Amino acid sequence: MRKILVIGAGKSTAVLIKYFQDKSSSENLHITIGDISLTNAKELASNHPNTNAITLDVFDQKSREEAIKSSDIVVSMLPARFHIEVAKDCLRFEKSMVTASYVSDDMKALDQEATNKGLVFMNEIGVDPGIDHMSAMQVIDRIRNQGGKIILFESFTGGLIAPESDTNLWNYKFTWNPRNVVVAGQGGTAEFLQEGTYKYIPYHKLFRRTEFLEVEEYGRFEAYANRNSLKYQSIYGLDDILTLYRGTIRRVGFSKAWNIFVQLGMTADDYTLENSEHMSYRDFTNSFLAYSPTDSVELKLRHYLKIDQDDIIWDKLIELDIFNTNKKVGIPNATPAQILQKILMDKWTLDHGDKDMIVMYHKFGYEINGERKQIDATMVSIGEDQKYTAMAKTVGLPVAIATLKILNKEITTPGVQIPIQEEVYTPILKELEEYGIIFKEIDREYLGYNPDGVKG
Question: Where are the annotated coiled coils located (predicted)?
Fold first, then answer.
């Protein structure tokens, strides 16, 4: 049998494993799931006859090498920083490799050797990055093949809660790594292009400059800018583009409320708080406010940030229990971001029966035959339950499909790459449609950001 090694048994892996298991008889596959937790690996294996679970610590060189050496292809679902150890072994034992993570500089440095050995190192083949790349390049290439020129490209993705499970004032629950939500936008200024002008949003203003999006049947959303929209300009072949913007989707009102935490300093992750383990949630909130012998913590916060008592933002803060004296942080030497994450996890963790939702929205502006036109493409995926989530589906399926197509030599171009070639995106997007991951396209009048022609 052909052996697939999956390293990492996290939340995004359930649908990936099920895909391999469902295809195991017809495709002659044997799946090995390796994780530092044998319990997690066994749970995903589910006693399937063509699946086994092993303990695999990525830092245990001997067991890692042994597992990789005895496989035909490797899927790494580890945190991004750990892929490089796996990749080096894949080079040594001449195995192709698939990951959903962004291409790191260390990974990029392996390109020539992978190419020389005829190995496919496919990266960024999840949802964002992944499905966004493939669905975007399919439309961009189609427009170019018709003789058109791309002048605007915007791409937005959000991991959200499905409407039927939306039960809090923030219209949000954690459907992915909570830490990534808390520290989102940090580590650099957001950079993008609008109508030929370079624009920048520093972190402290990021959540107050949002765009609004309308998705048929699902209503209105907002999006804040990703850190660097320009990194894909040359990769997508958009060197002459006027507008290039990538962002993260939330429900309207989330960003304005989240900005309160940013302004207070609660999202900081570069220092620790004294005696944090003994703090109450109220103590934590008060630590960012001026001392007053008379005013309450609530009053100080409202005055400091000019929040009226009847403002919905105030209700959102109350809902999170940030003024609770009885709830304790319980984390020693914690950063503000770590404490905020704990507070939010009390309220934003998925309840039993909750369903998540992935929303993706692309805008393509282009010139053809002297006319300017626009295509808007949207995709919405709703999860089945807490195991087979929309996030696990949209991350796991493209990874799994790409892995099988590499194994079957349907994807053959070697080297470290992302899925922007037609050889890759056409068959994968076609198969994803069978699982309900479908983009709806609407032709619109092109307005851009500058319908009056005034320099922005």
Answer: none
